[in-house]
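Slack export, channel: ligand-projects

TW: morning all. Re-posting the request from yesterday since it got buried. We need the structure predicted with the small molecule present, not the apo form. The ligand is pyridoxal-5'-phosphate; the SMILES is in the block with the sequence. No rush, but it would help planning for next week.
GE: picking it up
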Amino acid sequence: MSLVLLTKYFHLRHLSNSSHAEIILLMNRCYNFSAGPANLPLEVLEQAQADLVDYQETGMSVMEMSHRGKTYMAIHQKAEKDLRLLMDISENYKVLFLQGGASTQFAAVPMNLFSSNRSADYVKTGAWSKKAIAEAKRYGTVRVIASSEDKNFNYIPSISADQYSANADYLHITSNNTIYGTCFANLPTGEVTLVCDMSSDILSKSYDVNKFGLIYAGSQKNIGPSGLTIVIVREDLLGRAMDITPTMLDYQTHANSGSMFNTPPCFSIYMAGLVFERMLSNGGIKSMEARNKEKAQLLYDFLDQSNLFSATVEGSSRSIMNIPFVTGRQDLDEQFISEAELNNLKTLKGHRSVGGMRASIYNAFPKKGVETLIDFMSEFENSNV
Ligand SMILES: *Cc1c(COP(=O)(O)O)cnc(C)c1O
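GE: finished. pasting the full token output, ligand included:
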């Protein structure tokens, strides 16, 4: 072992109170707090590694085989079936495996859902919803019915049904705001076609899909590698896309072809399938939700009693996926981030619009990693206040 590795070993041993075997694993795999692309379950990576050059004795990798062949078709269909099971998606919803990221959906949603009114209500809760609003404005009328921009998006504004525009084709929300660490505790209610950007909290807790007209999510936060975008859309919303809608952005195109109109992102779908399978065998969304809440609570409890660190979001607006926090001093924040890095706690730098730190603790992030972060924060606090 080199001196650097040896130092790292004792650092980790001291810090995380882990066994020798756990430390050896950590020497290769850091605790990665990245907001996205984010960490994946180690078992899934190892399975992909085992399958990589020869998938189930086909003599080729999933990346190299025809997307119309039997082997890939089985992967594709099982991924959809497992996602339907996980989220309890009803028959009258289509599940689409698309490309272009959530950002492409910012345009696809209005193009597909603007009916004769060409009008929609949006809730502005951060940078992603701002982008969604700007894009929708290119195709029709957008009314922002609530916003939290006055406080740099550190809360979720309250919304009531009497704010909805009478002629809106849909109401758009961002369920979890990745950059600011806020999340809707309750969904908007009332007679409305609810459209949700669920990119950073899909599969983290149970959502009743029947309450939505459409859900979309990029895969790289809670599902798998980037390259796959999931759209879950109620069937009655199909077939009314604006004339100018490109064939590839029309949901009907992909609904008609089982997301096989053109070459799908095969490898990302295969990886997502492994994640779905693993979640199902670990108790599904209910168990995942319990683990996620436990992890987030540990960190919020620590932050709330700390004399140095504080969370930037209060109470019921708090996300269980992304937790921003600050010391209140920029130099200390920077020192913390670089010392954390040396302790294998990586990608903790906050988004430039919030500053400080952000711990993204998605589904695949282990509880042990949160505990290790808290131990490190406590040590840092003791030597810096
Ligand atoms: C990451 C993110 C996006 C952007 O996703 P892309 O797939 O990169 O386009 C949009 N919305 C939310 C809530 C996100 O977290």
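GE: first-pass observations. Residues 284-305 form the longest helix (22 residues). The CA atoms of residues 29 and 210 lie 39 Å apart.
TW: perfect, thank you
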